[in-house]
Specification:
218 residues; alpha/beta; Rossmann fold; seven-stranded mixed β-sheet; 6 helices; 7 strands; 29% helix
Amino acid sequence: MAKVLIGCETSGIVRDAFLALGHDAWSCDILPPDTPTNRHIQDDVRTVMRADWDLMAVMHPPCTRLCNSGVRWLSQAPPGRTLEDMWAELDEGAKLFSAVWNVQHIPCVAVENPVMHKHAKARIENYQPPAQTVQPWQFGDDANGPDNERKRTCFWLRNLPPLCPTGSLDGTTARDTVAKASPGANRWKVRSKFFPGMAKAMAEQWSVHAFQHLAEAA
């Protein structure tokens, strides 16, 4: 079995998509998994990724301070916080993104995040524009299903091709659940949710290309 690391994931959605194809897939996060599993490593992804992940890594580093939607907090901090807090968290977020994007010993790497603001881009080592931008609804068939959402998702890819949409939805009925998540302690989790249709496409399409890449490199 090929080893696949899903970094910064607690839901197990992407991990389970790779497991369904027979891969030795593991999720990793500093937080525990959302549901009990023996396939989750609770640790810093920068430590875990040092192991021999011989096929690929799919990384979801936290986007709170990197994403365009939160850039306003860099000029006016939210209640109870300071601008120093906001800029320090931006620096830490950029360091984590840089670490997972620049890991060299894993053959194929995908990093997922929303659209970034200019301050994040300037802080990321070897930054380059994302290889593609997709929407969850492009991978869904059921208008009432979990994939029929609007959430602009960017992928930075190394030795992997852009995803091909697999769904039949056209976006006209897509919901804005993620963007309109209510304020509260769990808002970050709602906004970071991932989608089963996209995860299935990632596992199916990227597995094939990752194996091809390894065969060509041998």
